[in-house]
Amino acid sequence: MSFKLCIIVNRCTLKPNLYLSVLVLVCVLVATSSYAQNLDVAKKCEISKHDDNNLTLNCSRRNFYSIPQWPLEISQVTKDGHMLITFFNNSITKVTELPATPGGRIAISFKHNRITDIVMDAFQNLERLVYLDLSKNKISGDVLRTEIFRGSYNFNKYNNIALETLNLGHNEIHSLDRYLFQYTPNLTRLYLNNNPIELLDHVTVLAISSATNLEVLDLSHTDIDNIPLVAFKGLKHLQQIDLSGNKFTTVPETLSLVGSSLKFLSFNNNPIVELNDDSFIGLTNLIELEVAENDYLDEVKRSTFSPLKNLRVLHLCHNRNLRYISHNAFKGLKDKWTLKEVYLDDNDLSEISPDLMPWTKLDTLGMTGNNWLCNCDLADIVTLQGAGEKFKTGESPYCAAPLKLSGEYITNITLSFCPTFDKTFSSKRKFSITNLKPKQVLWSIFGVAIVACIGMAIGWLVKSVKNIYKKNRNQPVPYINLNSNSFA
Predict the structure, then answer these.
(1) Which run of H or of E encompasses 4?
(2) Which residue ranges run through the membrane (predicted)?
(3) How confident is residue 412, by pLDDT bands cut at 50, 70 and 90?
(4) Secondary structure of residue 149 in the 3-state scheme
(5) Which of 164, 195, 318, 451 could anchor a disulfide with 292, C-beta 3.0 to 4.6 Å?
(6) Quick one: which of 296, 395, 394 has its CA closest to 348?
(7) pLDDT above 70 covers what percent of the chain?
(8) Are 123 and 148 in contact (CB under 8 A)?
(9) How far apart are CA 355 and CA 163, in angstroms?
């Protein structure tokens, strides 16, 4: 390379014919160098052929600064085959236009590079690209333009690409182009986690809502505290959403718009203080709920989980200040119980109501890491209602109080002082006068007499007042005769 540079620098001193010959030689040297570099790239990357329909090109951790040409072995993949190409953990700064690749389903990963730019039509030759990972780079929202994800140009229009999964997590995105997903109608999984979005502005909301086939949406750790109602408008297939690590003080009511389809909700690590009967309204088809690592959560109120009529798994754990769960938190669900797994680990609970839930209907229960007061209620839950049989092996919780039971497994304690209630009931007897004792009869008669006397006294007093009033009213008025002599 230094030899070529010397020739170029000193070209002014050469004769014309000699200069032409040197120029040709330089071109040959450059082409040869590029070819050798591509051969070297092919040798550096590992090619794994699983069968005739599955091939992996592993170019990870090879210290690439740009995207090389594909090796010839890739052309052996059939049109229905699966192709995985990974450039994980390199130093690539720009995604250039990628060469055509055979195969019916293509997956490419550029995770953990230094990408700051993506050229227009970068993926137009890969219309069967179904998976693209651009996470952990330095991509901004300005880089993500509509033209990046469009296919080839035919018959006066651009084709779509088959993209199903797009991972944009851990970048520098503040906003999205409203038409970003115009050419990706099959997009079902979108990851925007760990981007400094802060506010879902109008164009970002339009971009998300335009991906009408979304099933999975990750907005975790984006510093948002609100979701506009129109953000989920039209997302009738959304099944999973992650809102962890944000600034929500309440569960956003926007979720009710996708309540008929939503099945998995992660709401961890938010500054929420309480959960109440408004928190999960409309989420009737939710199967799994995570409410964990919320350091400010201290109370779960009445009817909090009542809307969740199909819930199977509840993670209410690692909330270090959670001290109280209402015994009616599952009001209305106990007769049609669907929960199979409940995790209450690592909260600040000390007591819990025996009638919180039908403990016998659970398959798995977690209660470790709390400050349990081993009292009669806890003994009822663990022994009489069989909750102790639901703990996983080696995950039996300890008693924190009283002092004499501190450190004991709650499954080992027997509280002999707890009363045993007779759960049989005698039939109700009909009331009869003969059931009264003589003293009760006398006191009853005496009471009636006193009431009668008081009534008579009040009646006599009223009558007397009325008579006096009538007497004063009927007294004649004196008249004076003006013609009498008494004035003479």
Answers:
(1) helix 2-9
(2) 441-462
(3) confident
(4) helix
(5) 318
(6) 296
(7) 82
(8) yes
(9) 49
For residue 313, give the 3-state DSSP assignment.
strand
Position 80 confidence tier, pLDDT thresholds 50, 70, 90: confident
Residue 153 host element (H or E): strand 153-154
Neighbours of 31 (CB within 10 A): 10
| Token pair listed for 380 | 């009822």
- Give the E-state strand segments of 24-144 in sequence order: 46-51, 54-58, 82-86, 94-95, 105-109, 117-118, 129-133
Nearest to 183 by CA among 106, 105, 121, 117: 121
CATH class given for the domain over 46-238:
alpha beta
Strand partners of residue 153: 158
Q: Is the pLDDT confidence value at 422 over 90?
A: no
What separation in angstroms does the CA of 388 have from each of 2, 371, 384, 412?
A: 77, 17, 9, 9
Q: Which residues contact 168 (CB under 8 A, 6 or more apart)?
A: 134, 135, 139, 144, 190, 191, 192, 195
Separation of alpha carbons 431 and 444, rounded Å: 16
Sequence ranges of the domains in the chain: 46-238
CA atoms in the 13 A half-sphere facing the CB of 275 = 27
**Rounded distance between C-alpha atoms, residue 149 and residue 53, angstroms:** 25
* Residue partners of 457: CB distance under 8 A and separation at least 6: none
Which amino acid appears at position 281 of this protein? I
Question: Which residues lie closer than 8 Å to 47 by C-beta, 6 or more apart?
Answer: 55, 56, 57, 58, 71, 73
β 240-242/399-401 pair status: unpaired
Tell me how far the alpha carbon of residue 330 is from its chain's centroid. Answer: 19
DSSP 398: B
CB contact at 8 A, 87 and 114: no
Q: How confident is the model at residue 319 (pLDDT cuts 50, 70, 90)?
A: very high
At 354, the pLDDT band (50, 70, 90 cuts) reads very high
Per the CB < 8 A criterion, the answer to whether 207 and 178 are in contact is yes
Phi, psi dihedrals of residue 95, rounded to the nearest 5°: -90, 110
Cβ 279 vs Cβ 305: under 8 Å: no
Q: What is the distance between the alpha carbons of residues 338 and 243, in angstroms, rounded to a whole number? A: 24
Q: How far apart are CA 157 and CA 308, in angstroms?
A: 46
The candidate with the shortest Cα–Cα distance to 178, out of 151, 145, 148, is 145
In sequence order, the β-bridge partners of residue 46 are 58
Tell me the two tokens of residue 331. 């009001």
3-state secondary structure of 258: helix
Tokens of 87: 């450039």
pLDDT tens, position by position, 294-317: 999 999 999 999 999 999 999 999
Mean pLDDT (the chain) is 86
Which stretches of 10-125 are DSSP H helices? 16-44
Distance CA 302, CA 288 (A): 20
Q: How many whole angstroms separate alpha carbon 101 and alpha carbon 437? A: 101
- Euclidean distance between CA atoms 116 and 447, whole angstroms: 95
